[in-house]
Amino acid sequence: MANEKQFKLKTLFVAARGVQEYRATIPTFVKPDDVILELGCEWGTTTEILAQHSGEVIGTDISPECIQRAQQLRPHLHFEVLDAFDVRAALGFGKPFNKVYMDLSGFSGYRALLDVIALTNMYATIFSLQVIVVKSGALKHFASHCTAWRE
Ligand SMILES: C[S@@+](CC[C@H](N)C(=O)[O-])C[C@H]1O[C@@H](n2cnc3c(N)ncnc32)[C@H](O)[C@@H]1O
Q1: Are residues 84 and 119 in contact, defined by beta-carbon separation less than 8 angstroms?
Q2: Which one, of 53, 103, 99, 59, lies nearest residue 81 by Cα?
Q3: Which of 57, 88, 105 to mutate to test the pocket of ligand 1 (most atoms within 8 A of CB)?
């Protein structure tokens, strides 16, 4: 049962619709000292932009073919194969990630909303993140219809 003693996250969750919005968040939320974990990097296009704004970024994807292509196109960047749902493997990188960028196929549909919330909460808790930016139209729609009640 919920009570006031439970751990409360301080992570800011940012929901973007579409890749243009997703990338447009970078100058606002990414700072030169940040260590970024990117989940779902495909060929590393967003990784390249994240690298220009942060101290360090690891671009990850479940697809070995995507990671091979990303590494060929951008040999100066760090890429790893990772299933985003395997948070223990992400811990294994041994990096003090403070922000996460997340763009996984299928995460924009309304049925994926519970998966998006579960996954973002898991990363926020395990890495004590400051910000998670998620490309998810469903989360953006949901968030825009939520408000925190204050008396
Ligand atoms: C829309 S693409 C990402 C595009 C990329 N963010 C960009 O800006 O160019 C979605 C990627 O999510 C990856 N993906 C899907 N499920 C995943 C999972 N469980 N873990 C990690 N990556 C996943 C896919 O392989 C695909 O490359």
Answers
A1: yes
A2: 59
A3: 105
Assigned token pair, 87: 């948070």
Report in angstroms the alpha-carbon separations of 46 from 1, 76, 79: 40, 14, 12
Q: Cα 112 to chain center, whole Å?
A: 15
Closest-lying ligand 1 atom to the alpha carbon of residue 85:
19
For 19-58, write each residue's pLDDT tens digit.
999 999 999 999 999 999 999 999 999 999 999 999 999 9
Ligand 1: list residues with CB < 6 Å: 19, 39-42, 45-46, 61-63, 66, 83-85, 103-105
The verdict on pTM exceeding 0.90 is yes
